[in-house]
């Protein structure tokens, strides 16, 4: 009797997983990038940096040399103790379109990136804002033009894609990039479905007016992380949000190089998701729970040798849908090398998510360095 219940539960879980993957396939993986009408709206590129002297030296020239005629760069020094401020000043001395916001440590907002970003946003001369991090670089000189082209009278929030650099012969690198692609598939697809729920600060744009009309980060200022996903979760709607995933609009950054550091980073990210809207938590939670149940039930039924032909057929059916979905998306996001290891990466991520959930119950994660 129990094994029969497990069998029918497995069928139901497979159906749920298939529905999710068909939605991802339809609303992102098979969709073509929409070409926004090229504009020349004045853009303020905001880069918040804390102890990022070397990254600024390498990456800032790629922003300065963008093929866009009407932009400024706002460099926010978030109480760094290395040479970040000096590096910023050296670039400013050579470029008229750079301004610096030097943030001093204030006990009330110590370690809070949102405070530093708010000061940078206030200092920006333009209404249209484009955000990235100091350790990110645009993959092309058309980054600003591609992202800004999606602004319109109705679209005031643009979700972009922030990739991670490929490293040869590194399982961790592939795992990190797989998780990044999977996350992008979801937030792009849900945005096209009319349910935008997050964005990434490595590549995000919105209007200054939108920020202040919604009281900025005030509703979650006490939560040190979430300057990107919590803000988007709060203010994004099916009317004001657009997505941009043309390859010229990507940014790329260096991924973590140790499992420990990546685990700490993911703990910070996951810790903010409990503050998402209930509807978003429900739809995201159901996807991850169905993933866990799929693997658990599939392995159990195969071990017990119960209706193994049907179980195996359902497993293969679900994997085919997953691989087709991930393959088309990975091609868009320049990550096809991850395709055939997707099931293995999925298992690792499920284990990681369970570990993070347990770790976050025991202690709070660290935040903005």
TrEMBL record:
Which domain of life, per UniProt?
Bacteria
Keywords attached to this Swiss-Prot or TrEMBL record, sorted alphabetically, are: Glycosyltransferase, Membrane, Transferase, Transmembrane, Transmembrane helix
Membrane-crossing segments per the record: 6-28, 282-304, 310-328, 340-362
* Sequence ranges assigned to domain Glycosyltransferase 2-like in this UniProt record: 44-178
Give any Pfam family that matches. Answer: Glycos_transf_2
Q: Which family does it belong to?
A: Belongs to the glycosyltransferase 2 family.
Q: What is the name listed in the Swiss-Prot or TrEMBL entry for this protein? A: Glycosyltransferase
